[in-house]
Structure formats: C-alpha cells, structure tokens
Design brief:
- It is a single chain.
- α8 runs parallel beside α9 and α13 crosses α14.
- The protein is an alpha/beta fold.
- It is globular, with a radius of gyration of 22 Å.
- β14 and β15 form a beta hairpin.
- The structure holds ligand PLZ.
Length: 455
C-alpha cells in the first residue's frame, strides 16, 4: 500500500488503487443484481455495476474484487472515509452499550455532545440550540416547523433548481419534476419558488440577482406571510451552482429586516466539503437556522437543525422529535467524525482537492463542450454543453457510464442532467484522485471525439 499523505498522517487499510479484474459487473455482482431485481422495488435500481463489500480512503471494493475510485462519497456523506478507524471504533463502542433508547424519553450524553459541537462550529457567537433527526429531509421539514412556530407565519420561499428532499413538504420545496415529484402530488401548499443567482447563465451580479428574488418575495407573497427562506448556499442536486458573491448576504439581510427566518440548507455543502466548516462561512453569513446531515456522522444517519436559541426554542416542549432522532450510535459516530475533520484539518484538504481538480479538468474547456468548471473545495462540477452551448445530458450520461466501466464512481446532477459532479472523500490519496480525474477527462475527450467522428 502507498505511504499515504505524510502531512496529515493518513494511512490506509486497503490498497489505494483502481483495479478492475473482471468484466463489469463481475459474476458475483451480477448474481446480486439479479436477486435485487427479483426482490427490491424497481424505483430503487442501483446504477453502479458492483455490489460493494469493503471500502477505505478513496476506494470501494466489490464482491468480485474490483476496486473503484470513489469520487462520490455516497453523495457527499463519507467525507472522512467510509471506514475511518476512529468513527468505526466509536460506533463499536457505542453499540456495545446500547443501540437505542429514544432520547426524548431516555437521554444520553452523545446527543448533547453533538448539539454542543454544532453550536460551536456554526457561524455566529450568539446563543444557539440544536435538535437532531435522522435524514436531511427531516431536518429541512423541522426547520420549516420551527420557523412557522417562531414567526406565526405560513409561507416558505425556496430557490429555482432547489433540492431539499423527497418527503411531501420537501418534494414541494424541491424543484425538479422527474424523478422526484412526477405522479406523487398533491404537494404541501404555501411554497413559493424564486429565481436564484446562476452567474454563467444569467450574467447578473449577486446584488442584481438578489433584487430580482426580493421583488418576487415582496410582490407575490409579501413578507407578512413568509416564515422562512430556505436556500442551499451552493446548490447540490440542482447543478452545483455557486451564486454570485453578494447574493446570499443580500437575501439574509432582507430576511433579517422582514422578520423572516433565513435557513441555510448545508446538508450537501456543509461539514468541510467546500473548504470551510460551512459554505456560508465563505461570505461570513450568519444564518438564523442551518440544516446539516450527510457528512456529519461519517455515514450514519443523522441530521440536525442548529440556530438562534430564541427561534429553535419557539416550538413548545414535546412538539419536535421522532423515535430514532439523534440515535446514540449515530451521535457517537458524529462526535468522532467531527473530531477527525478538525484533527486532520479536512477543510484545508478540501481546498487542496479543489486545486487538484481544477488542474486536471480545466484543460477540458478546450473541447468547447465545457460551459464551466465551478464549485468550491471538494464540491466541484463540470457543466457539459453541445457545440451550440445547449445543456448536453446525453454527453454527461455517456461520460458517467464510461467512468463506471473503467472503475471510477462519478455522479451527475443538474436540472438538465448535464453536470458532472465531483465529491471525493476528503481523505482521498492525491495520486488516486489524479488518476480518477484522468479517467474522467479521457472519457470526456473520447466521447466528444466519437461524436464528431459520426457527424
Ligand atoms: N438538502 C441540500 O442535498 C440530499 C439526494 C439523493 P436526505 N441530497 C441527495 C436522492 O436522490 O434522494 C439533500 C440535499 C440537500 C436535503 C437533502 C435531503 O437529504 O438525507 O436524502 O433526506
């Protein structure tokens, strides 16, 4: 195995290598895929040609011994790795005592530790409180419940292309029709969508884009009816869109002036992913409430709403919760995962990863098919277009599937399905990352080349 990263003393249990030893899928994975289609609802149809049995650092290993380079982190979850030693040890230790008690009735320390830690690392030094849940969608729903309780108003404002989850309220908040919403309505009322900033397409400054959104909020809903504005500081599923500087601060300021709760949905962008603890840190924004999940607990299901004490405490005693909310094994994992993020300075590592990705992928702009390489830290996307500059989902799908076939796990996103998104674990080895990006770059060039050969 390689020595790892001497600076952070990263060492690995598994060889950090791309190794494809069978046709994909291999026979063991193919047999499992058969059982899957005979037993699992077809709405859940996995896209990776391998059933995983092990993983470490930047690799996932399948049932046939194929080792894939992981550029997805289970959709931005395993930022500290899929089997970080400290996280795994914390899970073993906690589960050895009890797997569950229901914190609402029978409490334990790790829940309080997670709350204290989140109150400490989220922006602002005001008095804060945290409540824990299990999934991201649940955290978003509860941020809305808390905002309504605090303001006494019903309205929820969300952004174009937003993604906030798949429950009924969060489907209403999510923009994209297929595959998330079509056929699943009616949806929760009182949700209004306003335009976000999308610099490469709208050409507006952050202030101009904010003025456009604020006009809509004032004229279509009115601040007297709005409980909260919920925004992803860098959009995830919607296409890794980074709003122009000044957009988010202006929206947050408008909220403050109008008794509207500003909720930053940091479920995908938070927890060191973008090179700071949170994406809002980049412009020193202090949200009233923040939702976190994904990266927070090293892969265990845990989510949180953190924010101003007077807002979080608006709902009365016993009005928020859930059987599994703040599960003790997940909380123990979160304490360990957040500890590793600080000890290994994974925020700095995310900034280094951005440089590596830009070095390897910015040259692709010469193909004429890359509208933009954008993002921050280890949350970077390549937006693909056709020769006329129109979003090109076919090219994107072809590149993703070539990468999968070559042992590199990469995801797409975007309203138009034309964005390649990179979310490597923050502990990925540099040489391995460069190799994975090389495969991706070759796949883009080869696909574009084949297309022009056909014309
Ligand atoms: N808010 C910003 O990114 C989850 C969705 C995967 P849950 N994104 C991945 C899929 O297709 O279901 C997400 C997010 C933001 C909320 C959520 C919802 O988090 O844990 O998936 O409920």
């Amino acid at each position: 195995t390689p020595e790892g990263d001497p600076v952070r003393n990263l060492t690995y249990r598994l060889p950090q290598e791309r190794r494809i030893v069978t046709a994909l899928p291999g026979p063991a994975s193919a047999a499992l895929a058969d059982r899957c289609s005979g037993s699992v609802g077809r709405a859940i149809s996995p896209t990776t040609p391998g059933y995983m049995v092990d993983g470490d650092g930047g690799v996932l290993v399948d049932a046939d011994g194929n080792s894939f380079i992981d550029l997805a982190s289970g959709i931005a979850v395993t930022s500290v790795g899929v089997s970080d030693e400290k996280v795994v040890e914390a899970i073993r230790e906690a589960a050895g005592h009890f797997t569950h008690t229901a914190f609402m009735s029978t409490p334990y320390e790790s829940y309080v530790q997670v709350a204290e830690k989140l109150n400490e690392i989220t922006p602002g030094d005001h008095d804060k409180r945290t409540v824990l849940f299990s999934t991201g969608a649940e955290a978003v729903e509860n941020a809305v419940k808390i905002s309504r309780a605090y303001t006494g108003k019903p309205g929820v404002v969300v952004m174009d292309r937003a993604y906030h989850g798949r429950t009924n309220l969060t489907m209403a908040m999510t923009a994209k029709n297929r595959p998330y919403k079509s056929g699943f309505g009616p949806f929760a009322p009182d949700v209004t969508r306003v335009p976000m900033s999308y610099p490469v397409r709208d050409g507006l400054t952050g202030e101009q884009a904010a003025a456009r959104a604020i006009y809509r909020m004032e004229k279509e809903v009115g601040p007297e009816n709005i409980a909260c504005v919920v925004a992803e500081p860098i959009q995830g599923e919607g296409g890794f869109i980074v709003p122009a500087e000044g957009f988010l601060p202006a929206i947050a300021a408008w909220c403050r002036a109008n008794d509207v709760v500003f909720v930053a949905d940091e479920i995908q962008a938070g927890m060191c992913r973008t090179g700071d603890w949170f994406a809002v840190d980049h412009e020193n924004i202090i949200p009233d409430l923040m939702t976190t999940a994904k990266g927070i607990a090293g892969g265990m299901p845990l989510s949180a709403v953190t924010g101003r004490a007077e807002i979080v405490d608006a709902p009365g005693v016993g009005t928020l919760g859930g059987t599994y909310s703040g599960n003790p094994v997940a909380c123990a994992a979160a304490v360990a995962a957040m500890g590793q993020m600080a000890d290994l300075d994974l925020a700095a590592r995310a900034r280094e990863i951005e440089q590596i990705i830009r070095e390897e992928l910015e040259p692709l702009t010469t193909t004429g098919r890359v509208a933009e390489v954008r993002g921050r830290g280890a949350m970077v996307a390549v937006e693909l277009v056709d020769a006329d500059g129109v979003p090109d989902p076919a090219l994107t799908t072809a590149v993703v599937s070539t990468c999968l076939g070559e042992g590199v796990l990469v995801l797409s996103c975007g309203m138009d399905g034309n964005v390649l998104r990179l979310l490597p674990p923050l502990v990925i080895d540099e040489a391995l990352l460069r190799e994975g990006l090389g495969v991706l770059a070759d796949a883009v060039r080869a696909t574009v080349g084949q297309e022009s050969a056909h014309v």
